[in-house]
Amino acid sequence: MGDVASSRRLRALITNDDGIDSPGLWALAAAVRDAGLDVVVAAPHVDASGVGASVISVRDDDGVRVHPRTLPGLDGVPAFAVEGHPAYIVYAAGRGWLRPAPDIVVSGINLGANVGRSVLHSGTVGAALTASLQGWYGLAVSLDSGWEPPEAPHWDAATTLVPELLDLLLARDPGTVLSLNAPDVEAGALRELREAHLAEFGNAQVVVEHREGDPHGTLLSSLRDTAEEPAPDSDIALLAAGHPTVTELRTVTGVPGLLGRMATSNARRG
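-> structure tokens emitted (270 positions)
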């Protein structure tokens, strides 16, 4: 695949933030396995959506509990339900838990799109970005299924693109992270894959209301559609037009030159 040469099969860690019992996770693991990679599955034991790159885990005196699982359609694939967030699972995999360590982390299939700059808050994307910090490849996969979960999501709309995305990813340098969003349609109805810019925020805004009560009140959150029209080349607009989208993401980096810019600014003011 791509420009990667190895005497062994590349190893992929499959995780998500919807939890070990998500059919989207199972479909993704099967697609990566069928693409020729050596697959291990490790995902949160319960839903962990919206946790970003949190490394919180449930600890007791014996550490973080891991529960071996057998997943549908994945006979022979090692699988674990972990009492921790997806980024913690990736972090643990690189700190001695999994041997050999993975070469790539594939996260998803998330039920719901991960678009705009609000991907910062996504546990699906957080796992892929944490892979980059380990020097591994990362791929986040999401299905644009809307606010109300459908009874039968079209997981194959995303999995049919997995071989192409793996080739694209593995042709890049280790540490590269891609985010794939697919419309929730039959695979045969997909339009061409498009590279997309991140929209300014996301496809919805969270509105938080403080309600008084005993003893201190309650914060109630609700989602509202954004009033702004997305840019035509943004992930939101392209998805709405029926295109699967791919965006390369960068993890946290420092921006050099701060003191030099301040000196230049002060000199101009003087």
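The chain has one domain: 11-199+232-252.
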